[in-house]
Input
Amino acid sequence: MIKKVLIANRGEIAVRIVRACAEMGITSVAIYTDADRASLHVKKADEAYNIGPESVAGYLNAHRITNLAVATGCDALHPGYGFLSENPQLAEICARRNIRFIGPSPDVIRRMGDKIAARHSMIAAGIPVIPGSEGNLSGVDEALKCAEKFGYPVMLKATSGGGGRGIRRCENADDLRKNFDRVISEATKAFGSAEIFLEKCIVNPRHIEMQVLGDHHGNVIHLFERDCSIQRRHQKLIEIAPSPQLNDQQRAVLGDLAVRAAKAVGYQNAGTVEFLLDANNDFYFMEMNTRLQVEHTVTEQITGIDIVREQIRIAAGLPLRYRQDEVQRRGYAVEFRINAEDPKNDFLPSFGRITRYFAPGGPGVRTDGAIYTGYVIPPYYDSLCVKLTIWALTWEEVLDRSRRALLDIGVYGIKTTIPYHLEIINSPEFKAANFDTSFVEMHPELIDYSVRRPPRELAAAIAAAVFTHMDTANNTPPNSPPNS
Output
């Protein structure tokens, strides 16, 4: 079994991996830059080492990180998500240095990270893909010919892209000409590759993804689906498991497609197969993420399966502990990404000191974060500070519990997306489970929540009114707060 793991990441996902290691009796090793000296993952890990002053570059230096893993006696490395998690070079270096990479093989990472190669693999396996260019575009003229063939709107996408970057929707030929060089520039800066391709745009789809697990013994299972349709500019805001928009027949079809896709490429470890569901209820393969997803928490809540623990077991060469018919789902789970952003100011990042923080509690409430009272959120990284995951038996109950938990959580000193999440779950369409990827842009009024009284303020006003009434009636309850 694996004895010591270097965590090549930071923030909440590093804390999550530290906790899994602690439960398994595995020594955890954290890395950090100067900007992350006070981060929670540094405090929680068994060992922690400074990898330099570069705020971001330090987490992207594969050779330095693996050298540290060897020097500290680690026999495995977990990449988390983001940074080098889908970098085949890191997996290759780990193999050369006799360190187990807690993820799929370098060949699979490379093939599925290349969107054209991934499309060809899925076509060969009989998985439906979105109509698009046969390969990378040679220039804008070829793009225009493809768009004419498939019809507008179309999407220009970075071949090596991911995380919602390097994507532009084009409504007509002028749009395509205007965006062509922009996407190339974005792709080059973000992924180090100027290659792009074109796909037919599936208008207002539902974004549904399937969690899969594959071991080194040929076993592959799925852990049901997640609905990631609530997103802004291709960045997910809220994730749900299972999707309240699918029926059991659709769920079975999607599960079969996901397992077939994973087997077709010899997938090992945890991965996610992402699909788009169009207005005709047809599924199309979009991409495969060869890593742990931010939203893995909702799958864990409905299945009871610790995905990070399974990742470590698989990397150690152990077989899956579950057959497909043994994986059961129960209830609904919703994850809210609490970002340090101001929704009323075009989601401008709001970095700074957390003056007060307290997490919500109660049945079915889970928080994954890396912040604490007094912590200063640095401006160099992603704005995610807490993931709030809520579970309940029914869709209606999970919304009620989510509302209560969002009112319970306290993050002060910075702006966050908490009020915006409250507006979303209170909207009639969301309550009715009737939404797609256009939900955010179609409901700009939800961002202007300043015209309504914030729920917390309203609750405080009601409480004050109740205590005032009771005082006046000379019926003050025991231990009531003064000046209520």
